[in-house]
Amino acid sequence: xxxxxxxxxxxxxxxxxxxxxxxxxxxxxxxxxxxxxxxxxxxxxxxxxxxxxxxxxxxxxxxxxxxxxxxxxxxxxxxxxxxxxxxxxxxxxxxxxxxxxxxxxxxxxxxxxxxxxxxxxxxxxxxxxxxxxxxxxxxxxxxxxxxxxxxxxxxxxxxxxxxxxxxxxxxxxxxxxxxxxxxxxxxxxxxxxxxxxxx
Length: 199
What we know:
This protein is mainly α and 199 residues long. It has two domains: 1-105, no CATH class; 106-199. It has helices at 5-27, 34-64, 75-86, 107-135, 143-162, 170-177, 179-198; strands at residues 68-73, 97-102.
């Protein structure tokens, strides 16, 4: 994949802010304590990685199609997410940014590019879930088990959220392209979310 210096700065900024926001939400606010540090590590590895790879898969497939694709952070939305976490809002709305694509993008290509993001979160959720199943018998309350558990649930949730058929979300573009592909991906997303909370 090809990255510009500006794009790398935007990716890093979005990853850091989202990771901190979710860490604050999960630990009761910002503090210079070991508990917050653990929450920040968990968030960076699970939410941060889920967000980052989701966007990078959009970019990868778009570039495979010969399109120009670059990520840009939504600074205002990052600020809202940070403030909501800071005031301990029970709901954290996060729209850190998006990959902007230009070039030969028809309906089918746009649908496949859009599907790549949620599919990445499904694969990540399955991977975290597999680690959770393997680790739980040996480390039921360790850091790795916490990472695996939260990673499975948050990535499954990210997949379901992005598959909602609302304008701007991946689901609307996948549905516009292919109803069967949309149904299959939505079914996988919901199924993974159920599994992540059941295991």
